[in-house]
Amino acid sequence: MKTPKAPKLRSVLTALALVVAPGAVVMGTAGEAAAVTKISHATATSMFSQVGITWSSSGGCSNRNVSTCTSFDQLNLATAQGAQTLKRASGCALNITGGTETGHASGTYSHWNGYKLDYSKTTCVGNYIKNTFTYIGVRGDGAQQWRSGSGNVYADEGNHWDVTYYNCGGC
Asked: How large is the C-alpha radius of gyration of the chain?
């Protein structure tokens, strides 16, 4: 008798992602080492609301194709989970001012590709980042940076925090 094949890792990850974030979409090919799970704006806002994270937009909108909007369409699930982790760990009020909308710098680990969020600067958030994470120097544009134990990078861009989430930060 033949033993049934084990489910492919991608299928298992897709099923897990849908349990964690209903409405999530797994992007990538079966040959990739780690597929990135993309979520909708509605899924992201639900996840943020669950832990008390707020968001604002200078344009009062959420259209991904308008730079004055704050959109979470095509946000990586790990990025949304990273925001939840930061909120829970810091205990600070968090307000997101930038997501996946157009108008940010390009690159693999960019806002557009779902890896970054911008946060309003508050004393609580600044103290938490500077007292908890490791200072790693100045970025090419002059922004001071700190790296969390999980590898995510927090950059002080003057009027906001620009955070690159490579993972969920220990969620």
From this structure: 17
- Of residues 67 and 8, the one with the higher pLDDT is 67
Angstrom distance (rounded) from CA 148 to CA 20: 23
Amino acid sitting at position 92: C
The first and second tokens of residue 18, run together, are: 């849908």
pLDDT for residue 34: 61
Pairwise CA distance, residues 97 & 162, whole Å: 10
Tokens of 163: 């955070």
User: What pTM value is reported for the model?
Assistant: 0.81
Residue 45 and residue 55 in contact, taking contact as beta carbons nearer than 8 Å: yes
Question: What value does the mean pLDDT take over residues 65-90?
Answer: 97
Query: Per the structure block, which two tokens stand in for 123?
Result: 């004393």
CA distance 144 to 135: 8
Residues forming beta bridges with residue 54, ordered by sequence position:
95
Query: Where on the phi/psi map is residue 15: left (φ > 0), alpha (ψ -120 to 50), or beta?
Result: alpha
Residues contacting 18, CB < 8 A, separation 6+: 24
Q: Is residue 124 pLDDT above 60, yes or no?
A: yes
Neighbouring CB atoms inside 10 A of 72's CB total 26
